[in-house]
Design goal:
10-stranded mixed sheet; globular; alpha/beta; two-stranded antiparallel sheet
Length: 395
């Protein structure tokens, strides 16, 4: 009798799970639900802290200035500008004297003037991943790591995409790219920072945005190329990612269906935002090589990343190297066209491809997870390496 009861409950549980999963798949084919799953933009993760009070996130008074940047479509993007620590110390009395709150006129603030009027200032434009806001999770220590290599000169500009945090709008691939372009144009036109002093940083889905905006500017009739790009935990494209993706490494999205090619191929037709980084990194590298433009791309990934498998970075690195090689190297010949991989033991490995125009670098760490890695010294060093290579006289 007890066996029958056990089987009955097991069957009921399995039916419930299967039914719930089927409902989830049906919802996933709708644009609205799919957008919430991909971007998770309604999840704030700021633990009841006020984004307009950056001091509550551990920053010094007025070290961070909240303000907005207007998009080409008239939307408002919520942004933070972060001063490097030593530069803050040098101007501490002036900064403390200013009101501490959201700025309706950032260009009048001391922090803006320190950025705009310093010919040696460098700017990292930060593009975060899915979920949360500029103040969520490991993003705060990430900002510190970005400027740690030169705490007098490296400013950080981060922003929430449309639909995230206090930014208006609804997220989409096209929309997020327009947002990033607007932020870059603000940095160049309003803040007066030339592209050669700007580094584009992206993590997780932010890497796809970073590649898209880098490609956009590189493909202009008069190409615009930045000092470089640092991509942490990138992915090939959404379709490839969902074939293996599990939330927190535990809850699968579409990976159970990847074993059924026809079913999976059918579901792929419903993917609204493809985020094909594999195509964009190829076009970006190829354009720079053809235009003889100097460029740098650093891809970083941890082997214990539960969210995005590190093999995505390996694939993107291979594609970038292929695009940089004029004789059309294939993957079997890849090792003959790059410097030997350096085994760093417990720290991971590094491999690099150099051409007359570019540097493509892959760093695979043994540990770092998906987010923790962002606050580690490997990030500080990657930023400094790019800025130093872009201008060897910069100190």
């Amino acid at each position: 009798m007890w066996v029958y009861t056990l089987v009955k409950y097991a069957f009921s549980a399995a039916t419930l799970v299967a039914g719930s999963y089927a409902c989830f798949l049906i919802l996933l084919t709708t644009a609205t639900f799919q957008g919430h799953v991909v971007y998770l933009h309604k999840i704030q993760v700021t633990w009841f802290k006020d984004l307009n009070t950056p001091e509550s996130f551990g920053f010094l008074r007025n070290q961070v200035t909240p303000f907005t940047i207007e998009t080409s479509e008239g939307g408002k993007l919520y942004a933070w500008h972060l001063l490097p620590t030593e530069l803050y110390r040098q101007h501490e009395s002036q900064l403390i004297a200013e009101p501490s709150a959201f700025s309706t006129d950032f260009t009048s603030r001391v922090a803006f003037k320190l950025l705009r009027h310093d010919p040696d200032a460098r700017l990292v434009i930060h593009m975060h991943g899915a979920a949360g806001t500029v103040g969520s999770g490991y993003r705060v220590p990430n900002y510190r790591a970005l400027s740690a290599g030169e705490p007098r000169k490296i400013h950080v500009l981060t922003f929430d995409y449309r639909g995230f945090g206090h930014s208006s709008g609804i997220p989409s691939e096209h929309g997020l790219i327009l947002d990033a372009i607007s932020v870059v144009e603000w940095a160049i036109s309003t803040a007066g920072i030339p592209p050669s002093r700007i580094l584009i940083f992206g993590q997780s889905i932010g890497t796809a945005v970073a590649l898209a905006v880098s490609e956009h500017f590189a493909l202009q009739s008069r190409p615009v190329v930045f000092a470089g790009a640092v991509l942490v935990a990138p992915f090939v494209d959404v379709a490839t990612l969902v074939a293996t993706y599990s939330v927190a490494g535990v809850v699968p999205i579409l990976s159970p269906l990847a074993r059924f090619p026809r079913v999976f191929a059918y579901l792929r037709t419903f993917i609204r935002d493809e985020w094909s980084s594999q195509e964009r990194i190829t076009r970006y590298v190829r354009a720079n090589e053809q235009n003889n433009e100097k460029y740098q791309v650093t891809l970083i990934h941890a082997q214990d990343d539960w969210d995005i498998p590190w093999q995505h970075t390996e694939t993107l690195f291979q594609l970038a190297v292929e695009a940089a090689t004029t004789d059309g190297v294939n993957r079997d010949d890849l090792e003959q066209n790059v410097t030997p991989k350096v085994d760093l033991g417990a720290a991971g490995s590094v491999v690099e491809q150099r051409t007359e125009n570019g540097i493509i670098r892959e760093e695979i760490l043994r540990t770092g997870l998906h987010d923790v890695i962002m606050g580690n010294p490997v990030i500080s060093l990657a930023v400094m390496r790019i800025f130093a290579a872009a201008d060897p006289l910069w100190k």
